């Protein structure tokens, strides 16, 4: 009995030590779980400070606002669209292949560099004036084409639209070609000659695109497929402008897209008729 009692007394410190260690572990785990609240509280405090600063700065200075807006407007008006193979706002993008004149070459204006006019705004540069003139020319072109279409009752054959890339003139294939062929009909040359007379006054690029429906060529045709047919039709229109009307070939580009760019549903005869077309687009793009 004495031995047992002595043994129990010796084990009592071990039990208390283990209990204290367990309590210490629980305390450490509890502290680790709550550490994320420190970061969260710091984040909330920073957000509060941020919104307080924003509120304190929310008073609008009208004069500074007008200066900033006029500066941005002047910058973006002078920008050369990268989407049209331009050199960008800074004049550094696509510097080796861009088609529009570089910004560094046309920094002057009629009223002198860096001088403001009587209205307080900076004068337009030569490049900005050229773009403005081009917009006027395109608007006048569209008006003349619409008038010609109406006067000659060609609404079912020709459609004109002002698109972001330029003035688009869509000619139905029945107006230009026989089925499966790329030779221009004699009745279409009058209209093409009228377009050529209007194009002669423009200094921009004109894109000619041939399109077909998704039906394979089944008639007796020298063309293997719709790719060849669409390209040949676009080339026929280009040849008319360049060879017969003597327009500058440097102002033209052409391509054939077959049925890859439909304008309507190819599942119906009406849709397929709309897809068989030639699109002539006068691009919003200055020549070098």
List the helices and strands and how they pair.
Elements: H1 2-33, H2 36-56, H3 62-77, H4 126-151, E1 158-163, E2 166-172, H5 173-176, H6 189-199, E3 204-211, H7 226-244, E4 252-256, H8 269-275, E5 277-286
Parallel strand pairs: 3-4
Antiparallel strand pairs: 1-2, 2-5, 3-5
Task: Name some characteristics of this structure.
288 residues; alpha+beta; 60s Ribosomal Protein L30, Chain: A; five-stranded mixed beta sheet; 8 helices; 5 strands; 47% helix; elongated
Plain-language structure description:
The chain is an alpha+beta fold. Among the domains are: 40 residues; 158 residues, OmpA-like domain (60s Ribosomal Protein L30, Chain: A), CATH 3.30.1330. It contains 8 helices and 5 strands; from the N terminus they run ααααββααβαβαβ. Strands 1-2-5-3-4 form a 5-stranded mixed sheet. Strand 3, helix 7 and strand 4 form a beta-alpha-beta unit. 19% of the residues are buried.
Q: Round the Cα radius of gyration to an integer and report it.
A: 37 Å
Number of strands: 5
**Largest sheet composition:** 5 strands, mixed
Unreliable residue stretches:
93-98, 103-117
Alpha carbon gap, first and last residue: 113 Å
